[in-house]
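re: ur question from yesterday

yeah so i grabbed the chain u mentioned. its 57 aa long if i counted rite. heres the sequnce exactly as i have it in my notes:
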Amino acid sequence: MKQRDLIKKLEEAGFEFERHGGDHDIYKRGADQEKIPRHREINEKLAKGILRKWGLK
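ran it thru and got these structure tokens back, copy pasting raw so excuse formatting
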């Protein structure tokens, strides 16, 4: 999955960009936090796991 597609889905769920980490970007929604790797392509299993974690499709 492309990074921008994953970020778009997270932003639609209310996550907002907080800051750049070492190799990741940090997105927050209230107390919820998700680290997204800074790669153009994100491994499908990882992307699906992140979406499943937050109840997204």
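noticed a couple things. The chain has one domain: 3-53. also The first helix runs from residue 3 to 12.
anyway ttyl
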